[in-house]
Specification:
The protein has 350 residues and is α+β, with helices and mostly antiparallel strands. It contains eight helices and 13 strands. Strand 1 and strand 2 form a beta hairpin.
């Protein structure tokens, strides 16, 4: 084997590399310690400290103004107003304003606190040895003393401008959450007690969008109707149809058990609310032989031949009936509104 095939001893690791360091040799993994502390300009120049204090106060004041703007935006901007804002495109002005103002309010509190800590609070690094989990009395005393020293070094008591503006910003930010409680309302007032049905309103077939005539409703059929004048493209269509949706069934008059139901019908054609009185689901299942209608959500069952009384399920009261007749054109029309509020019971139902 040639000398080129054997590594030179100069390139072999020495035994001392794996053993204790020789005298005078430096430890490559020695603890470098902490770098020398360099004072900040705020520590040696009170004017710089005042500038930092004003900056922190400005951020806290800006947070307060943003919170006030959040509240003003919530009150001023309508929920359905859409505007074009570059580069976001067409957005809701209310959502955009709420997001911007609340974001600024929270950011300024955070930025102000960070700037305060980095420029005005003490920046000295104090190493501490590890200790057992339990805290002996002397450690607890040291912690309390460190807390007192930290409070003193932060200038919280001395720099009243920073302290007071921080209090103001922190006090106003929760008002944003309080304003959001408005979306739990508005209160229903008496809107749940009435619908669009009124005397003279024609029954419009929701499939053909034409007025219903008695001959259009055959025995055993189920037809859905809405009040005349309600358009699917109207802004409040969903709100109105949720209360005014109607189902039409024709029953042989001699099979109607409830006298008032018979009086409010026309030639055996009865009109009842389509909205279940349990939790407001739309009813759409009809049994021709029994004249029962079934809610698909929780199986509440109503007998349309006996005043739409509940015969099964969790619903608490019968379906409201709409009194109907025929106008001069031979079309079915309402003779008033429902006899009671439609849908499930609500907190002020009388």
């Amino acid at each position: 084997m040639s000398t080129h095939d054997t590594p030179s001893e100069a390139h072999l690791p020495s035994e001392q590399a794996h053993g204790p360091l020789a005298r005078g040799e430096e430890d490559p993994f020695a603890d470098p310690g902490l770098p020398p502390h360099l004072p900040r300009i705020q520590d040696i120049d009170e004017r710089a400290a005042k500038r930092s204090e004003r900056t922190v106060a400005f951020l806290f004041v800006l947070s307060m103004l943003a919170t006030v703007a959040f509240i003003a935006s919530y009150v001023a901007f309508p929920v359905d107003k859409i505007v074009y804002i570059f580069p976001f495109g067409h957005v809701s002005i209310l959502n955009f304003a709420l997001g911007i103002t609340l974001g600024i309010a929270l950011f300024c509190i955070g930025a102000g606190a960070v700037h305060w800590a980095r420029t005005l609070m003490s920046d000295r690094e104090v190493p501490d040895d590890r200790h057992a989990i339990e805290a002996p009395p002397e450690v607890r005393a040291k912690v309390m003393q460190d807390f007192a020293d930290g409070a003193a070094e932060s200038g919280f008591g001395r720099r009243k401008l920073v302290r007071n503006t921080l209090f103001g910003a922190m006090a106003l930010v929760p008002l944003s959450g309080v304003m959001l409680l408005r979306d739990l309302g508005p209160l229903p007032e008496k809107k749940l007690r009435s619908t669009m049905w009124a005397k003279g309103k024609q029954l419009i077939n929701m499939n053909t969008m034409q007025p219903l005539r008695p001959e259009d409703v055959s025995v055993g059929s189920l037809t859905f109707a809405m009040p005349e004048g309600l358009k699917e493209d109207s802004e409040d269509f969903q709100e109105q149809i949720a209360k005014a949706a109607l189902m039409i069934v024709r029953i042989q008059p001699d099979e109607i058990k409830d006298k008032r139901e018979l009086d409010w019908s026309h030639q055996g054609i009865v009109a009842y609310s389509k909205i279940c009185t349990h939790v407001g689901c739309p009813i759409s299942l009809y049994e021709q032989q029994t004249h029962h209608v079934l809610c698909p959500c929780h199986q509440s069952t109503f007998d349309l031949s006996d005043g739409a009384k509940v015969i099964f399920g969790p619903a608490g009261h019968p379906l409201p009936q709409l009194r109907i007749g025929v106008n001069g054109q031979g079309n079915l029309e309402a003779l008033g509104d429902f006899d009671q509020p439609v849908g499930p019971a609500f907190w002020e139902r009388g």
